[in-house]
Design a protein that fits this description.
It is a single chain. This protein has one domain. Helices cover 0% and strands 21% of the residues. It has strands at residues 6-8, 14-18, 27-31, 39-41, 47-48, 53-54.
Length: 97
């Protein structure tokens, strides 16, 4: 069975993370470099780039598991490791002009 994956094409997209919760100036900002794969539209949760940042809902209660982060379509990896991690909360914004 083949699945069709739709990507959003934008050169303005970015992802970021805070290195610690004590200092918001201590962050990693990564702008999209391969804009054809900026945003991946998926049922299981938001995804940015070719696995640059994937959020996965593991069940109907929207528990997050098997989230991963690599460096592909964006300038920088926003985590120090590619290992799976858990998420307490996230926000996604869309700006339309």
């Amino acid at each position: 069975m083949l699945f069709h994956i739709d990507y959003g094409n934008t050169k303005e997209s970015f992802i970021f993370s805070f290195k610690d919760e004590e200092n918001i100036k201590n962050h990693i900002l990564s702008r999209v470099k391969d804009n054809e794969f900026a945003i991946k539209y998926r049922i299981r949760g938001p995804s940015f780039g070719l696995s640059d940042f994937n959020i996965n809902f593991s069940d109907l209660n929207m528990c997050f598991s098997n989230n991963n982060c690599t460096k592909n379509s964006y300038e920088k990896a926003i985590r120090r490791t590619e290992n799976n991690f858990s998420i307490e909360e996230y926000e996604v914004f869309q700006i339309k002009i």
